[in-house]
Amino acid sequence: MSGRKQFDVDVALDQAMRVFWQRGYTDASLDALGAATGLGRGSIYGSFGGKDALFRQCLDRYAAIYGAQYEEALAAHSDDPVRAVEAFLDIVLARIADPSVPAGCLIAQSAAQSAILGEESGGHVRALLDAQRRRVRGALASAPADPRVLDELATFVVAIIQSLAVLSRAGSPDAELRSVARLACTTVADTLARATTAEPADD
């Protein structure tokens, strides 16, 4: 249409996503988002519905990009829960080590700011964390252990993922992050082994 600026929505989302990822929601001003995307305030509102709506779309974009990698890693080890968790954490560590993206994790960064997010955006972040837990829980499903143990392990793995993101953001070296991941995998393996060999409780 004549006089109307055309742009690639996916490219703009990627650019805005990096701003939220690097700066966090609070410091991702409309001016910063506009500078990154090349869009004016009117275009941001007209195309994405404003800062909050753009933020949620960026969260979904982030979850789709890395979620696909997580699913692929987990699917490759569907019969080995411990190896699946190792592969999952390998993807997390690879993302953290990637110099082409901001440090940390957009979801972890956003979760840390939940108190200042609006109700809808805060709920969106919580939903993405729940999706991570369900993804890990599904990878553990083949283990012959009490479902409550598997639920707890899934929550533990998600906590480790978020902790790795925070530590990397604070500048922890790769060797330390990998040490945390190894200990997490050992904990998962030991917990599953104990849960599998434990005698059933008396009624």
Q: According to CATH, what is the class of one domain?
A: Mainly Alpha
Beta fraction: under 5%
- Overall shape: elongated
**Biggest pleated sheet:** none
Write the layout of secondary structure elements.
Blueprint: H1 9-27, H2 30-37, H3 41-48, H4 51-75, H5 81-97, H6 106-111, H7 119-140, H8 147-169, H9 174-197
Quick summary:
This protein is an all-alpha fold.
Structural commentary:
This protein has 203 residues and is mainly α. The protein has a domain at 62-197: Tetracycline Repressor, domain 2 (Orthogonal Bundle). 75% of the residues lie in helices and 0% in strands. The protein has helices at residues 9-27, 30-37, 41-48, 51-75, 81-97, 106-111, 119-140, 147-169, 174-197. Helix 1 (9-27) crosses helix 4, helix 7 (119-140) packs across helix 8 (147-169) and helix 8 runs antiparallel to helix 9 (174-197).
